[in-house]
Specification:
By secondary structure, this protein is α/β, with parallel strands linked by helices. It has two domains: about 230 residues, Spore Coat Polysaccharide Biosynthesis Protein SpsA, Chain A; about 210 residues, Hexapeptide repeat proteins (UDP N-Acetylglucosamine Acyltransferase, domain 1, 3 Solenoid). Helices cover about 20% and strands about 30% of the residues. It has a 23-stranded parallel sheet that branches. Strands 5-4-1-6-10-7-11 form a seven-stranded mixed sheet, sandwiched between helices. The protein has a three-stranded parallel sheet with strand order 30-33-36, with no helix packed on it. The longest helix is centred in the C-terminal third of the chain and has 22 residues. It is elongated. It starts with 7 loop residues before the first strand and ends with a helix. The structure holds uridine-diphosphate-N-acetylglucosamine and calcium ion. The site of uridine-diphosphate-N-acetylglucosamine has 31 residues, from strand 1, helix 3 and strand 10.
Amino acid sequence: MTATQPRRAVVILAAGKGTRMKSNKPKVLHEVLGEAMLGHVLRLAEDAALGASRVVVVTGHERHAVEAYLQATAGGRARVAVEQVDPRGTGHAMQFALPHLQDVDEVVVLYGDAPLLRLQTLLDLCAARGQAAMSLLAAEVPDATGYGRVVLDADGQTIARIIEHKDADAATRAVRLVNAGMVCVDAAFLANALSRLSDDNAQRELYLTDLPAIARVDGLRAVVSRAADWQEILGCNSRSEVADASEILRLRILHRWMAEGVSVERVADCWVESTVQLGRDTTLGAGVELRGQTVVGEDVVIERGCVLRDCKVEAGAHLLPYVIASESSIGPGASVGPCAHLRPGSELGPKVKVGNFVETKKAKFGAGAKASHLSYIGDADIGAGSNIGAGTITCNYDGKNKFKTVLGAGVFIGSDTQLVAPVTLGDGAYVGAGTTVTRDVPAGALAVSRAPQQNIEGWVARKAAKQAEKAASGVQGSQGG
Ligand code: UD1
Ligand code: CA
């Protein structure tokens, strides 16, 4: 028989002022590896494995910014934001969450400034509670300054009490086991205990960390769950701690992808955000940055200095150095760069080639189409197999409105061509070099708008003779003066 899963809610504490950040921005919106700390914590809270029926976020300091973030990133998920009026500590924050916790058996509390926690550690914390009133995550850290110290009974498992750093004497400060902050607590016990908190402490706050001592008074147990990796529990209270956390997460993610079959040429200098997906046998060069919802397939080579945000790169594609791309897709076997710029809405089909100093925007390239050198292709639909010569420009903007350029399949555009949109070129059309295309070109037709060439015989010699004459008269002039 399997035990029924308790009805569970998650509360994220995010109301704190974050004084040590010295910032106008709320602490939980400071970014760790390119994503707000709160975003990392939300991903954990909303993981299906945790099975929470509700996520409650306690806001306070700069709460409008925090609430705007919650909305902007919700993607249809139900999130409850509650305001903690006049924040007075973590226990006080929980009192405001309480009205939203009436229909659950168990509450998981996460701190908005602790972005490194792993899902498995959180699941272990919940499992550790068993029949106890609560379980609390702790770890032994090299430097315990600022953390609450966890004082255990002789059994090494039951928590006697937690003493905040500011309330601790020298002997207690010597304790290395610190409170990570996250707890899993019986909902009925929580409701009862929150009404009994007192602010009789150094900070005159209501501490959530007084819960284990209250459990003891009631003859209940609070148990400790130890994080194997102390770095997971780091709380980020200053910009230095944010940078440290970012670096820890960066390395963790790179090593995870290497374990999954991705090669990283220079670990010290490669940035892959938590939201990115990579396929096996893909190689990342030095200084590569993969951001946001970027998804990269198998056997892709991304060379030095490429920066991709919210892009899709399919199997076997090759990005030469310094490709900058956002909100774009790169088809299987395509080749891009070096030094190409794919702006939002660029869609390169299979085996497309976009070469150096080519900028694209809202441009669709059919299979095998090429723009190998020095071009701007915007608001365009390029048919399969078309070839765009060096220095081709889509003139898509008249200063007010944007217009579209449409090329059929197998179109050939000679070098230094302007395509003045709106304009359509039929299948197999051919445009001579140096042409300014202002009217549609039918399928199979040649368009040329070049002025006829003149050759003026002997012109160079005549010009040289004239210059020599002028110079000589100039010299005489100065002698006579
Ligand atoms: C807290 C713990 C400490 C633990 C450490 C782990 C308490 C009293 N102390 O200390 O034992 O070792 O975290 O990082 O809980 N917050 C609110 N409302 C408030 C105050 C804080 O929502 O009134 C939020 C903050 O936004 C933050 C979290 O709670 O996300 C922790 O608050 P913080 O002030 O950073 O607590 P610490 O002093 O770090
Ligand atoms: Ca903290």
